[in-house]
Each structure stands twice: as C-alpha cells, then as structure tokens.
Amino acid sequence: MLTVLYALLYYVAAIIFVVGVAKRVWEYWKTPQPAVIPTTPAPVTRTGVVWRMFKEVAFFESLWKSNKWIWIFAMMFHLSLWLIIIRHLRYFLDPVPTLIVLAQPFGKYAGFFFVLGALGLLARRMFVPRIRYISNPSDYLMLLLFLGIGLSGLGMTFVSKTDIVGVKAFFLGLMTFNWQPLPTDLPVLVHLGLVALFLIIFPFSKLVHAPGVFFSPTRNMVDNPREKFRPVPWLPPVDEVQYDPPHGS
Amino acid sequence: MSELDKNPEAATDDVPPEAQEDPLYFAWEPKEGASAHIQSFKAAPEFQEPLGYPGELVDNWKEVALAKMEELRGKFRSFRLFLDICVKCGACTDKCHYYMGTSDPKNMPVGRQDLLRSVYRRYFTLPGKWFPQLVGARELTEDVLEEWYTYYFQCSECRRCSVYCPYGIDTAEITMAAREILDSVGIGMKYTNEIIGKVFKVGNNLGLPKPALQSTLEDLEDEIEEDTGVRVRLPLDEPADILLVTPSADFFAEPHIDGLIGYAKVFHATGAKWTLSSYASEAANFAMFIGSYENMRRIALRIRKAAIDLGVKRIIIGECGHAWRAAYQFLNTLAGPFDFLDPNYPVPQHICEYTWEAIQKGLLKFDKSQNDHLKVTFHDSCNVARASRMGDYPGGQFEIPRNIIKAVCNHFYEMPEDTIKEATLCCGGGGGLLTDDLMELRKKGGSPRMKALKQATEEYGVNKMAAICAICKTQFSKIMPMFGYGMDDIMSLHQLVSNAIILPGSEQEKELMEAEAENAGENAGEGEA
User: Fold this and answer.
1) What would you report as the CA-atom Rg of chain A, rounded to the nearest whole angstrom?
2) Looking at the predicted structure, is the pLDDT value of residue B18 above 70?
3) Structural domain span for residue B153
4) ipTM surpasses 0.90
5) Contact B329 A230 (CB under 8 A)
6) Nearest CA in chain B to A65
C-alpha cells in the first residue's frame, strides 16, 4: 500500500518538478531584456561573462562581498547539497560509476554540514532583526523542510540503518516501471516524503533561484551597449518615429 | 580641529547618532515607519498628461495597475525574474544609504522590493493565490498604492544593492516598474514629471530657451577671455564635428558652470570643432527614473535629431551620472543605430574619455600648482560606477576620472575603500529625488557619504570633493553645509581641469614661461657658483 502511494507520489512529484522548472526556464528565456543592464564593472566579452557567472554560482562572489556570515552558511549548505546529490546518484544507477563511489565518504558526511548550514541560516533569520523583518512563514518552513530532509537522512545513515538495498530497488523499479516494495521504516518514509514535497514546491517558490540566477541580466549580459545595437523589441523602429518640434515653432 | 567643527550650526540631530560616526553604519534594529512621513509632492494633471498618463487616479485603478504589472513582466525579464528569485537571504539589507540614514526597514532593498512582490505574489503566483499568509502575499488596495508612492520615491535607483545580491537583483528595476505602474493609474511625481514635460516643450530640464542659452554662452566666453586673454568659443547650433550634450545645470549654476568652462577649454586646446544644441540642450533623461521607455526614447530622440541636423561625427556627453547611464546603456538602444556617425568613436562618448585621450596624446598642458590649495577626493556617482563604463575595459569609469584628477592636481586622496568605486554611496539625491519636498530624506540618505568624506578630511585634510554628476553636485552643495562643509566644497571634475589648463597664447602661458625662464636663470647661476 505504502509502496503504491510513494510510487505515485514520486511520479507526480517528478512530473511537477520537470514540467514546472521547464516552464519557468521557458518564461525567462522568452521574456525580452530590452536594455543592456549588467551591474558594472562588467565583462566586455562572452568569455568574461561565463567566468563572472562561474564565480557567482560556484563561489557566491557577490555574497562574499556582502556578508561573510551568510556566505559561510550558504556555502556550507550548497556545497554539501551538491555532494549529497552526487552521492545519491548511486540509488538511481546500476552499476554505480567509480566517480560516485569515490564521492561516497564525502557525500555521507556532507549531511552534517548541510544541517549545520541550514541551522546557521535559520539562526540568522530568527535572530538578526533585519532578516527577521523580511522573512515570511514560507521562508522558515523552507529551512525546516531542509532540516527535516537532512536529519531524517542522517538518521537512516548513522542511527537506525535502513534497508538501503531495498530503497535502491524501489527507485530502479520506479524508473523501469517494474515496482518493487519500499522498506517501510519511519526515517525512510519521512525522508522520501519530504524530498517529494521539495520537488513539488520547487517550481512555485523561491527555489527557482537555482535556474533563475543564470538568467539574471545584471550578471549574464556582456557590457557592450555602445558596440552592439539592440533595438527595444516592442518599440517601433527609429525611422518610423516622430520627433518633437523645436521650441517656438 | 577639523573643518567640520567650524560650523556648530551643522544640524544632524535627525540622522541617527550612530550613523554620524560610521559611514557604513546600519541599524541593528529596524525602526518600522521611520520614514513613512516623507513623501514627495504628487503631480497635478497638467504635469501628467504631456507624458501620456492620466491626470488623476483612474476609477478602475486596480485593473489598470494589475494589467500594467502583467504587461511589464512580459516586457522585462529583469522585472519578472527579480520578483521570482529573491530568497530573502538578507545580503542587501544593510546596503542602502536610505536605510542607513533612516533605519526604516522598507528602505532595505528587499523591503522595498517586497512592497511590490507581495502584490505580485497575490495575483500572479499559485502559492500567493492559495496561501497568501504563508508567502506574505497581499491584496492591492489604495493604501498599498500610497505606500508604493512613498517608498518607491525614497529609492535613488543607485544599484548599490545589486552589487551585493547573489542573484544580481537590482532594486532600481523594481522601482522603475513601480513608478511606471503608479503613473499609469494617475499617480505621478511632480518633480520628475514636470521636468520631463519641460524637455518635451523647451528642450531642457530648466526650461531655458535658445536666447537664454545664447546669452549665457556669450557671457562665459567673455569671462574666459577676461581670465585667460584667450577667446574660447562656446558654439550653439553651429555645424561641427562634435555635438556636446550636457546637463542643463551646466548652463545655470555653480559648480556646474565651471565644468562647462572646463570642457570648452579642453575642446579649444585640442582644436576641436564642437557645438552645443538648443534642441538637445539636456543630457539628463528623467524618464529613466520613472521607468518609461516611451518617454525616455522621446528625450533620447532629440539627441539623434540634433546630431543629424548639425551634421556631426561624434556625440559627447557632459558630466552627469544618470545622463551617462541614459546615454551609455540606452541611447543606442532607444535612438540608434547611429551608423551616420564616425565609426571610429564609440557612441556616445563621455567628456572624461575625450579629455583623458587628449591628455594621453599630450595635447593639453597643465600647471598643476594652480590646484595646490586643494586637497581633493573623488565621489563616484552611482550610475557612472554601476551602470556604465568609460574606455574599453571594465572599471575604466573609475580610473579615467581619477587619472584626469591626478594629471591636474597634486593632492588627491581616496575616501574609505568600501564607499568608493562599485561600492560607492549615493549622494542621496539621485533617481529623481532632488526636490526640496524630500529634503529630510536627501539629508539622511546623504549622511553615509558625508561620514565617509569626514573620514577623508580627518585623515588627509581633504577639503574638496570632485564629482561628475549634476545631481550629485546640486545635492552636495545643498547638504554639505548641514554637515559642516561649505556649499562650494563640491566641484566639477572639469573645474579642476579648467584651473590647471594652460591655453596656448594665454596669460597663464606667459606667466609660466616667465617663471620657467627665471628658474632656468637661477639654476644656471647656481651652476656657475
């Protein structure tokens, strides 16, 4: 019964996640950016922009300039998340590629840093008055969701070991439409339930910052408004315009 | 005792005491509503209609506002994306000079964005429609419009927040959109909209018609001749190679006008054929402040027409921050292509690019000692620093003005590192807020810059601040006396150039040659002894 429920949940979550994110990306892609507005100084070449964007998404360059505490917790949180995601690929791939096997120990302990990072961000949100002021209930709930995912994950790795082989069989079964029973201990059910929730809310929430940052015109534009002519798409071409008459005429 | 202590009247009581010490002070505790009472005058119908906006609040304002929001999110990726992707991390919360000066949390960049984001979420996102409380979504009401009007006219669109945002969210984009939405329902700002109307009608922000310009320019020619013995022309509406478009403040008041004299001397010394235009007698483009591309284009097109009519090869923009942004980022896009101009020069060019090139080529001769009584610092204007470039490499907008200052002054000092270049602090009067009805805000918003200047004064004895922005200059000459400086302690960069430049055939050249000859004689004498 639970197997069927979780299987359906994951199909629905996966569809919402993929379609939802694709829709968002499509919207950003097709919405014009009429003026060249990079925050300057900005690169004057495409290569320069790629480098700027890389520093932004890999090292959070702007955040570093802004606030070292947020930077530390954010780095801790996101780097751990990457390691954790890479490690989790082993539950979807058979045989497991060597690289992912090598990432295993790092991914395993990254869970602690992930929780620590989320706790740090939560503490700032709760105790820094400026950040408390701008926080909505959803901002706290989002961090609690991550804490729930992290703690339940750590629980099944380090506290009450789950039947991880069974979990893998369940996911491989989902992918090949050959359903296998899901181990039903509580940490697994909580962990998987929260991850599904994460996938479902992703496209409708601030979590779209992940794909969104790549579309940010203040970061991804080449600083070349003088060199390259880019007319505003919704204004008539310049040879169709009427000029104001001179004063006194 | 520093300069600052000379003026005991310097009333800074309404700026938080902590802010008076530390330029980058921020309020640990936000004080809600601290600047809610500061509101600029609204535009009367006569100032709205020439811009194509309703004269007063339309009956179906809610539908109109929401339709406008829908329209804007289809036209601007920046607007749509920035409303979606803020994660409320707090990186920007202590970066706005208006927040530093007022402690009002709605002046934190994200606080300001949320005034609009909350409405956007309510009407345009699923979570906002289903669970408004959860995501901080709210209905659009007349009170909300009023709040928008208050706080979106407490933003100078300086982009400092966008430097620090991990996603590059630029509050200026949100502010511009909010002002456009307000205008479209009939709520406009008197100061900006009245001025835009003047440009449409007369050609410049100050409403100076051609005869007034003509006589001002002739007076300046006389003045220069009196000072130097050289007749330096300031041509108006004459066929030429270079069209100079400069903020109309340059025709009108100190310290702006000294900058104009500086440009004229540089053009004279380089032998350029240049002209001003009475039709395009304004580099400023206040339509940028209210986020109206249609009106911004109408002003930009005046420059295009003037360039065609006068048959020029190049367009050069005078000292003005937002005007340089309007020219650098928008002129080509809105009024281009400029394929009829000389392709060897960027369109447009900044006067500092022109002057620096002339200096590098050795075309200008200076007597730096003429500026020896000045200890100068440089205020990076926000739009120049964070929304434009000079030269062909990133950061030229910081180096070129400094290079010029160092070429004409012996005593140049920087203000604290975290208040200059891309981190520069707004003067407090940018973005269309340079109006007397916002004086309290201007003073509070200018206080972080004033504190940074004070540090440079205490450390190096700095007594003058140079700037390349008409708004900065006007704002500083107004607020500097409130912080213990003189109103003439703000200077045009080209005023420094003007002081030091030695025009060929001028009195200054003769004096200099005599002094050099004397020196040479003395040295020769010493050699013999």
Assistant:
1) 23
2) no
3) 31-188
4) yes
5) no
6) B164
